[in-house]
Every structure is written in C-alpha cells, then in structure tokens.
Design brief:
CATH topology of one domain: Rossmann fold
Distance between the termini: 9 Å
Radius of gyration: 24 Å
Helix content: 40-55%
CATH class of one domain: Alpha Beta
CATH architecture of one domain: 3-Layer(aba) Sandwich
Number of strands: 13
Structural class: alpha/beta
Shape: elongated
Order of helices and strands: HHEEHEHHEHEEHEHEHEHEHEHEEH
CATH superfamily of one domain: P-loop containing nucleotide triphosphate hydrolases
Strand content: 5-15%
Strand order of the largest sheet: 8-7-9-6-10-11-12-13
Length: 385
C-alpha cells in the first residue's frame, strides 16, 4: 500500500528514536550470539499472537464506511527472521529451520531481565506512550520470555505486535449514516490542523460520490475562512461563510437549513480553535452544539477532535476537555511526520478507546488516510513492510 511507505518514511523521527533506543538497550550488556557466553542457543521467542478483531459497534449502524476504508490492509508486522550466519557456523538442521530456532550467531542479544525491562519502559515513556501503557506493554513482552536472550529485531517485532493489539479496537473509519444531512462537527485547539483536515475529508467524500457542504464556523479569523474557501475550491465543495465576528452558532444553524434544502449528504462545520483553558471559548462551543440540536436532536452525528501529534501528552488533557463539552465521537491525528514521539497515539487509544478515523503525515491532499493499526505499528517501530 502506497500510504504505508509514505507513513514509514514520514514517521522516521519516531521510528528512528525507538529503533536506536532498542538497539542501544540490547547492546548495553548484550553479547554476540549465545555461544560466545558459553550457553547453548536460546529458542526464538514465541510468535506474537495476532490482535483480537476489533469489536463491532453495538449502538449505531454503519451501513457505509468513509472513503478509503476499503483499502487493503498493509503488510503484517514481520515475524523475527533468521539473520546471516557466520562463515564458520554450522548450517542449522531442517528441524531448527522449520521451528525458527536458527538464530544468527553474530546477532547481538541480551538477557531480558529487570534492568532491560526498566530501560525499555523508559524508552517507551519518552516516546509519549504514557506510563501505564508503557508498563503494560513491557509486561506483555516479558511474559514467557523473562530470562531469555533477545535481539533488537525480535524486540521490535514483539513491540509492534503489542502496539497493533492496542490500536486494533479503535481503528474505525468515520461511519456514514443514511440520515441527511449527516452533521460532522470538527473541533480542536489552535493550529491542530482542523481546516486542512476538513478540506481533505470533503475532497475524499466528494470523490466517493457524496454531496458535501462546508460551514466556515471560525468567524473570528478571516484567514481561517479564506483557507477553508481555498480547500473548498480544490475539492469542488461549497463553503458557507458569515461576516467576521458573527455568531458561529447562527451560521451552523443556517448551514443545516441550506444542507437540508440542497439534499446534501454531509455538512462539515469548522469551529474556531479553542484553548481548553479558555472557559469563554469552550462555552461558545457548547452553545454551537445546543443550537445544532434544536434543528436536529441527533446532531451533530459525529464530533471529530483533531489533535496535533507534536503536542505530546498535552493531547490527553485536550481529549478530556472536549469530551465533556462536545461529546467527542472520534479522533483525527495530524502532523505525525513532525514528532519524534508518535507513541502518543498509542497512549490515547489505550486510555480513551475513542475511534481513530484518520491520520495525517503532511500537507498534501493524499496525506490523510484511514488509520491502519498494523501499518502504524510497523512504521512506528521501524519494521519493514
């Protein structure tokens, strides 16, 4: 899948940090080959179990999926492969090769002990995976393997499997419902990438045959309206605007009226960037939700919180705040190409369990794609696709 290569290439900051950290942990106290330590070769670690299937949503029907959701899965994280043999090493027997026990004689390996686990926990925490998640991941890696010798490659494979297991239940495309118009409210703090996300989603929906209307609800910044109009032109989607300083709740109400009259499938409403510590701005967002529900008690049908990956652990407080005021139904994570701490997405999934609909790794129209847990896990840990 083309996006996997792009994701892996653009996540180089995160994957390089993890890859270099894992290699340093193994090399610190590790030895080349089990034989050099006077020990027989250790069996290869047990294979990582496949993640459980994502649970089906029980409350709302999902007759369709968002554009791009039916794309083929990316490559599964690679299982530990047999490394190169030294010239003098005897060729392993067929049984050893079939059972995966032909470990490379010159591969640096280290005993998985308390010191190694502590170093691994520290590495995951500094990658913004969060303390609780990091402890749980390392505990799962150690289960049944404590005291065994592992290489950096094997740990990367195990880590990718744990990340994919955590992310699998939340990897869900934006549901499309038969009711028209489906109202999608997009919220987030300043600079999170809301406007560009709306433009990209609108373009994808239109290309999928949906009729889309955009409401430029950030009435306080002329630049935000202009930017959204540019994206609307690119996508071929109309953008409703209001004079600068107008009440955004009134615009949202008028936009719903227009979308109904035109038979639009989706109405996407942009909102002003909110700082979660500005109570007045957050109350205004709550007002938008109240006004929308006067028009349609079921609206907004989706409330997307757009998060900037570079904010790190601050994203957790943003989710907590917006959940209280706007009943967030799903997440979009942007700017994963700009951070060395891509583990924040794992932390959010483990803590909140909110659907992750899409991730962004750039400014181009095709730099936003449905979230795939196995591709993300492989890209984050630096595994080959």
């Amino acid at each position: 899948m083309a996006f996997f290569k792009k994701l892996k290439d653009k996540l180089f900051k995160s994957s390089s940090r993890l890859e270099e950290g894992l290699e340093a942990i193994v090399e610190d106290g590790g030895e080349e080959g089990a034989a050099e330590a006077g020990m027989p070769p250790e069996p290869a670690p047990d294979p990582v179990p496949a993640p459980d299937p994502a649970p089906q949503a029980a409350t709302e029907p999902e007759p369709e999926q968002a554009p791009g959701a039916a794309q083929a899965r990316g490559p599964e994280p690679a299982a530990p492969a047999t490394g190169p043999q030294t010239r003098d090493a005897p060729k392993p027997g067929i049984l050893a090769r079939l059972t995966g026990r032909a470990a490379a004689a010159n591969e640096v390996r280290r005993v998985l002990d308390d010191d190694m686990l502590e170093s691994l926990e520290d590495l995951l925490i500094t990658s913004d995976m969060g303390v609780d998640t990091a402890l749980r991941v390392t505990a799962n890696i150690a289960e049944g393997r404590f005291g065994k010798r592992l290489s950096a490659r094997e740990i990367k494979t195990l880590l990718a499997g744990e990340v994919a297991r955590i992310m699998e239940p939340v990897a869900r495309p934006l549901p499309i419902y038969p009711s028209k118009p489906q109202v999608v409210l997009v919220v987030g703090v300043n600079g999170s990438g809301k406007t560009t996300t709306i433009g990209k989603l609108a373009s994808q929906f239109r290309n999928a045959g949906k009729k889309v209307v955009i409401a430029a609800g950030d009435t306080f910044r002329a630049a935000a309206v202009e930017q959204l109009q540019v994206w609307g032109e690119r996508a071929g989607v109309p953008v409703m605007t209001a004079p600068e300083g107008s009440d955004p709740a009134s615009l949202a109400y008028d936009a719903m009226t227009r979308a109904e009259a035109e038979g639009a499938d989706l109405l996407m409403i942009d909102t002003a960037g909110r700082l979660q510590n500005r109570q007045d701005l957050m109350e205004e967002l709550a007002k938008i939700v109240r006004v929308i529900r006067k028009k349609n008690p079921d609206a907004p049908h989706n409330t997307l919180l757009v998060l900037d990956a570079t904010t790190g652990q601050n994203a957790i407080s943003q989710v907590e705040t917006f959940q209280k005021l706007a009943d967030v139904s799903g997440l979009v994570m942007t700017k994963l190409d700009g951070t060395a701490k891509g583990g924040i997405l794992v932390s959010l999934a483990d803590r909140f369990g909110l659907p992750i609909h899409a991730i962004g790794v750039g400014e181009q129209i095709d730099d936003l794609a449905p979230f795939d847990p196995e591709e993300f896990a492989a890209a984050l840990t630096g595994l080959d696709g």
